[in-house]
Amino acid sequence: xxxxxxxxxxxxxxxxxxxxxxxxxxxxAPRAHAAEVxxxxxxxxxxxxxxxxxxxxxxxxxxxxxxxxxAEIGVGYRxxxxxxxTVESTQWPVTASLWAKPLxxxxxxxxxxxxxxxxxxxxxxxxxxxxxxxxxxxxGGGISMPMIPGIASLxxxxxxxxxxxxxxxxxxxNYKADFWTTSxxxxxxx
Length: 190
Known about the structure:
This protein has 1 helix and 10 strands. By secondary structure, the chain is mostly beta strands. It has an 8-stranded antiparallel β-barrel with strand order 1-2-3-4-5-6-7-10. Strands 8-9 form a two-stranded antiparallel ribbon. The radius of gyration is 24 Å and the shape is elongated. The chain starts with 7 loop residues before the first helix and ends with a strand. The model has no long low-confidence stretch (mean pLDDT 83).
């Protein structure tokens, strides 16, 4: 019986090729998770307020519903000033999104939400606050970068929210309610 041996150089090349193949599969193949819980901190900007940005907070639950498609439900909180600080706008949206994932780290898509908005007049104590609800849509995308593989990822998300004109019985009687938001969160995998 003839035994075939390979040279150390050939074994090294096979080892490197196998290692690269396994590393490539680990990067390309998404890990299956039941869900991700994503608390986030963001910056929002209303186009009519110039370059002023405000903090926003969010909490979302995201899960894969198909190999390259994820669904997300989220809640948020944001506060903004309108008309040079004469009106405070407080908003807490409840949103649903569908994200296409062409690559495991990147996602793009949009969704809809129910935006609850309270207008308060801090400089005019006689005027009461007013709360309204409005349906809105959003488009955006993001990147999810693994921090601890299988446990947590850093999630950077940007979106434009279209709410159109918001009507109010108190001044301002009509204002543009659209806004941009960019958020950074930690996606904890379960």
